[in-house]
Amino acid sequence: MSDQRILITGAAGIVGTLMRPRLARPGRILRLLDIAPLEPAAPGEQVEIVTGSVTDAEVVTAACQGVDAVIHLGGISREDSWERILEVNIDGTHTVLEAAQAAGVPRVILASSNHAVGFRRIGEAGPAGLPADSSARPDTYYGVSKATMEALGSLYHSRFGMDVSCLRIGSCFDHPADVRQLSLWLSPQDCARLLETCLSTAEPGFRVLWGISANTRAVVSQGAGEQIGYRPVDDAEVFADRMPPGELPGYLGGAFCDIPLGQHNPL
Ligand code: 15L
């Protein structure tokens, strides 16, 4: 049997860097694409490095050849000007999906975000938590790009039968940094678990899932993830006594709901 090959866009970013060692498996080659420099392959590591942008159709088309699945993490990860969000996040996602379908890639995982529904009120869906497929209520242009990403994923599933999973990622960092993230944290290990679940689901399907750990203070419903076998293990609560003082915001998107639209923001 030939090796499984997975293309990861945005592989030099925060989530990409966390996933590189965690998705490595015997019999699997990770093809890592980023505009930013990537560490060369360590001895024994099965990786292929591609330097380029998700906005460059030629680069992305070549990178999709011979690939079994694409994990699309590439793009701007916070608020920015409409022009930049449009080019990198919206057009970039279209470029990736188009290249994947032209190359016959059967499966794509898209890194969406809680900011696609950032203007949903925490608690609005009752104790069961906000369902993963709640309709879009973006909090920024960045959030609009994530809602659009999900719509594009749906289109490519319906038109071409691709298996598409959209992950509404909460806060994927080594550890939570504030009270809001005690609810929305996705541990790196659980992120890898979620990706592995999506990589092995029966195809073809289209699904929107929360990317959240098994947090005691969760405010979203894990139902859709559970249905396909996602079993998060980590709980942000173990970090609770180290959090700076603060309260849960009214809206899921937290501070993103208040920052000026279209301004590059360090959040
Ligand atoms: C995101 O979508 C961002 O990419 C990340 O930097 C965090 O801000 C995260 O959401 C969050 O909401 O905590």
UniProtKB/TrEMBL annotation:
Pfam families: Epimerase (PF01370). Coiled coil: none annotated. Signal peptide: none annotated. Residues 6-170 form the NAD-dependent epimerase/dehydratase domain. Keywords: NAD, Oxidoreductase. InterPro entries: Epimerase_deHydtase (IPR001509), NAD(P)-bd_dom_sf (IPR036291). PANTHER family: 4-EPIMERASE, PUTATIVE (AFU_ORTHOLOGUE AFUA_7G00360)-RELATED, NUCLEOSIDE-DIPHOSPHATE-SUGAR EPIMERASE. Belongs to the NAD(P)-dependent epimerase/dehydratase family. This is NAD-dependent epimerase/dehydratase family protein. It comes from Nocardia jiangxiensis.
